[in-house]
Design goal:
heterodimer; B: alpha/beta; 5-stranded parallel sheet
Chain lengths: 277, 476
């Protein structure tokens, strides 16, 4: 059992938790993920590790309520226990000295880029971070990201904070003015990653994406997470979760992550009805 | 106590059949298909045993069960002694009594086999194990004095469980690591409820815990900790992580939404209990017409699970003929009774689908058998121009598994062969790294539960020999 040591509400339906998992905190690296279950009857869902504290043996996760499991998870309180918490899974981010790098984050992906940004900074890179959301209140982890970035650009769709527009607008401007950008990481909603990747392709800049697919075991056993990368079938859980975004079959990927839409809705409704009972 | 009957009479008597749920009833539920022997059935069947002076049946049992002795106890209606006799060497009697291919093992060696009526050893084993469970009979836990030596067993499937149990009985401190949230390995995620109820697996795992085996779930060796980490803490290691990675056909359309690996399909249904959705959260998609590719036991499990989940038609697609089918005859028989349709000499060439990624059919080609290949079976050859479309809306790949490299990658000095399976010394089960042993499917490739149980037992003895000679991974 894995205790929730601290819980924060980042905004409305976005939550963060520090989970006691010393074995995982001991070896986890940026870019890796965990799989958790709220209870025995629950589903196994993967979440990218948003941070860790090796000394205290803690793993930081950030999630938004998007369905049954995240809804239930949000109702857990500090001191409660998760039924299962497995990791660290997947490959770590390729942290190296590249020169200038840009990290683009959207939604809860903003949290996921934080440890990558911190380690890239530590490796001597010039780190430019671009984060975006619909509106000001959805901008999370601004302070933490500012600390590890040489430059932090914020965009909001409605212009309520930072620049009005999308992260890709800000990225395009950077790419137009800075020839030294060697690598881009983009983590967030699939459509954002897809658009970012097609933008950077025009500038021939390597771009890493982190794919969050439907998984069961997360250790290469089932193939639920498979996606076509450069025409070859890869498992996100063991070959990823980070891939060269320009090789991802985005349509196939988006199709597969939506394959249980109907059932997910049914499960969520079932859960809500039971709560009312 | 039941009467002993004369040998001649014993030889005349027929095998006692086991009652089963009728096919039309059972395809609507996930309850066990065979219902087991009654007390009377078991005694009658046990009475047929000739109690050979030189019992051949035991030579066919990798679990090394004293078969004539436990059968004798059944005749004497001393079921407790029968249970303890089995438990002495087999830590998973209710499991092996159900899923062992006895016709290929003990019953193949039974002297009555020549009459076509071998003793139904598996059914008797199952009866005894079920009786003991219902009557709260437990094995002895006051085993030998504890030794100050620690063994790590990686993987809690049949190989790991049997090795751990044997080592614990010898007095070693055993820690069993399981990557998933429940122990049991393939017994839990792979074999369906209707062949092996999960409460039974849980019960037998708990019995193994009682003899001192510590089980740690949610621990992925190769991710949470490496084999190198284990080497620092344990005196010996047994690797039994199974042959977990699914094989795909690598044909067009295979990444569509309604195409599953058998591993995923069965894990969703068995481990995650998707058949109880939405009471359990994990969903599973079921088409009206499901095609399972392959004809092994896993394929039979998949095709039969699809029926129970509501598929109107469930096909088996196999590129060879009925003669080459690798599944147990009993499984094929059960599948056919339940209405699974077999398409022999058929090879899928691509999965067809619509824009939304939904499967609409599968293009196949007919095959004919040519000369024998390296496996000794006649090689299937496509018949040109024989392509046809099978209307299906769901596909399950059950064409076998490959070695999952996750553990091998984290172990220095443990060599694998070209397929990624651990190289071992056949006699001792030791890998190329002294002190690290391996067994089960990660050595053999996909095999049977009982061969894994046997590997675990042999490895346990070798580990004991290794440790008794004063060696330890910690001293290296």
């Amino acid at each position: 059992m894995y205790q929730i040591i601290k819980k924060e509400t980042l905004y409305q339906d976005i939550y963060a938790m520090w989970i006691k998992a010393p074995e995982i905190a001991r070896t986890v690296q940026p870019g890796q993920f965990i799989i958790l279950m709220t209870r025995e009857e629950g589903e196994r869902i993967p979440l990218t590790v948003a941070d860790y504290d090796r000394e205290k043996g803690l793993i930081y996760i950030v999630f938004q309520i998007v369905g049954k499991t995240t809804d239930e998870l949000s109702s857990f309180k500090e001191g409660d226990y998760l039924y299962s918490f497995i990791g660290p899974l997947g490959k770590k981010s390729e942290i190296d000295y590249f020169g200038t790098v840009v990290l683009v984050g959207g939604g809860t992906g903003i949290a996921c880029i934080h440890p990558i940004a911190r380690n890239l900074k530590k490796a001597g890179n010039k780190v430019i971070t671009i984060i975006g959301a619909r509106t000001k209140k959805l901008i999370i982890m601004e302070k933490e990201l500012r600390q590890v970035s040489d430059e932090l650009i914020i965009t909001t769709d409605d212009g309520s904070y930072g620049r009005k527009g999308f992260v890709t607008d800000a990225l395009k401007e950077k790419l137009d003015h800075d020839n030294n950008i060697k690598k881009v990481w983009t983590i967030g909603p699939p459509i954002m990653m897809k658009v970012t990747t097609s933008l950077t392709k025009a500038y021939s800049v390597d771009t890493i994406v982190s794919l969050n697919t439907i998984m069961v075991d997360g250790t290469g056993m089932c193939g639920s997470c498979r996606v076509s990368i450069g025409g070859e079938t890869k498992f996100v859980c063991t070959d990823g979760p980070e891939f060269d975004g320009q090789l991802v079959d985005w349509d196939g990927f988006m199709n597969r992550i939506g394959r249980y839409k109907k059932e997910e809705k049914e499960s969520w409704n079932h859960h809500k009805n039971q709560e009312e009972c | 106590m039941a009467d002993m009957i004369p040998v001649k009479e014993r030889m005349k008597r027929e095998q006692i059949p086991m009652r089963e749920q009728s096919p039309n009833k059972r395809i609507a539920n996930f309850k066990e298909v065979p219902l087991g022997y009654t007390r009377e059935d078991a005694i009658k069947e046990a009475q047929r045993c000739l109690q050979c002076k030189n019992p051949k049946c035991m030579t066919g049992c990798p679990a090394e069960i004293n078969i004539p002795l436990f059968i004798k106890y059944i005749v004497e209606e001393d079921f407790e002694s029968a249970y303890l006799t089995i438990l002495k060497t087999d830590a998973l009697p209710a499991v092996t009594g159900r899923v062992c291919p006895q016709e290929e093992q003990c019953q193949k060696e039974c002297v009555l086999k020549s009459t076509g009526k071998p003793i139904a050893i598996g059914r008797l084993e199952r009866f005894v194990a079920d009786w003991a469970r219902k009557n709260h009979i437990h094995g002895k836990t006051d085993s030998v004095a504890k030794k100050d030596l620690k063994v790590a067993v990686v993987g809690s499937g049949p190989a790991g469980l049997s090795c751990a149990a044997d080592l614990a009985k010898m007095g070693y401190h055993v820690t069993l690591f399981e990557a998933l949230h429940k122990p049991g390995g393939v017994l839990v995620y792979g074999i369906p409820e209707f062949r092996l109820p999960k409460t039974i697996v849980e019960y037998e795992v708990n019995e193994i815990k009682k003899i001192g085996v510590q089980v740690i779930t949610d621990y992925v060796v190769g991710a949470t900790g490496s084999v190198e980490d284990l080497k620092k803490e344990f005196d010996a290691i047994f690797l039994a992580n199974g042959a977990g990675a699914p094989r795909f056909m690598n044909i067009q359309g295979e990444n569509m939404n309604d195409v599953y690996s058998a591993n995923e399909f069965l894990t969703r249904s068995n481990l995650m209990k998707a058949y109880l959705f939405p009471e359990y959260d994990t969903p599973i998609k079921i088409g009206r017409k499901a095609a399972t590719i392959g004809a092994g036991n896993v394929a039979m499990d998949s095709a039969r699970t699809a029926l129970r989940l509501g598929a109107e038609k469930s096909y088996i697609i196999y590129r060879r003929s009925r003669k080459e089918v690798p599944a147990r005859a009993e499984e094929v028989h059960h599948a056919e009774e339940e209405g699974v349709v077999f398409n022999f000499l058929t090879l899928p060439v691509r999965v067809l689908g619509n824009k939304e990624g939904k499967v609409t059919g599968m293009e196949c080609i007919k095959m004919e058998l040519g000369e024998p290949d390296e496996s000794g079976r006649r090689r299937p050859i496509p018949i040109e121009g024989s392509n046809f479309t099978l209307e299906v809306d769901m596909v399950i790949d059950a064409i076998g598994t490959m070695a999952n490299p996750i553990i091998a990658k984290s172990a220095q000095g443990v060599e694998v062969n070209k397929w990624g399976y651990f190289k071992i010394d056949e006699k001792t089960r030791m890998t190329t790294c002294e002190g690290i042993f391996a067994g089960g499917d990660i050595v053999r490739g996909a095999a049977t539960v009982i061969s894994a149980v046997g590997d675990g037992k042999v490895a346990a003895r070798s580990i004991a020999t290794y440790l008794s000679s004063g060696k330890s991974l910690k001293k290296k």
